[in-house]
Design goal:
The protein has about 140 residues and is α+β, with helices and mostly antiparallel strands. The protein has a single domain, classed as Kinase associated domain 1, KA1 (TATA-Binding Protein, 2-Layer Sandwich), CATH 3.30.310.80. Helix content is about 25%, strand content about 30%. It is globular, with a radius of gyration of 18 Å. The termini are far apart.
């Protein structure tokens, strides 16, 4: 019998319950999550490039892009927790037709502490990327 102590909206039992890993490699998943800032997609490089360009351009200004090298750089806007970030998106074509997307976030020169905003910025990019891929009808069944 588990006794739960209510702590606001959490219970003590939920604090010690193992959480299922989300976004990890699954048989029917479109991507494999390597970290908060790196994923490997079951999508060809050419399709990923277009989707990444659109995702980076959402609410941001692209500073540099080079499709041949697989590099996109842009600056995110300011928020309550940061002065913005310089984000670099690196796309790498893998041997099996998949594409690695890796983000590097760098604080602007005025900011000493990021308060986790770099991870949130990466999450926002990947959410936009997944939306772009859904709009181009990229699903695991039609990418193989």
């Amino acid at each position: 019998m588990i006794k739960a102590i209510v702590l606001g909206t959490l219970t003590a039992a939920s604090l010690f319950t193992p959480v299922m890993a989300r976004d990890k490699k699954e048989a029917n998943s479109l991507f494999e999550k390597k970290s908060d800032k790196e994923r490997i997609y079951k999508v060809p490089l050419e399709t990923m490039w277009k989707a990444c360009m659109k995702a980076a351009a959402e609410d941001n200004v692209i500073d540099y892009s080079n499709e041949k090298e697989g590099i996109i750089t842009y600056k995110s806007g300011m928020s309550m927790s940061s002065w913005g970030f310089r984000i670099s998106v690196n796309l790498t074509k893998l041997d099996d037709g998949r594409t690695r997307v890796k983000l590097t976030t760098q604080k602007t020169e005025r900011q000493l502490v990021a308060w986790g905003a770099g991870g949130r910025t990466a999450g926002k990019f990947f959410k936009g990327l997944d939306k772009q891929l859904a709009e181009t009808n990229q699903t695991p069944s039609n990418t193989r």
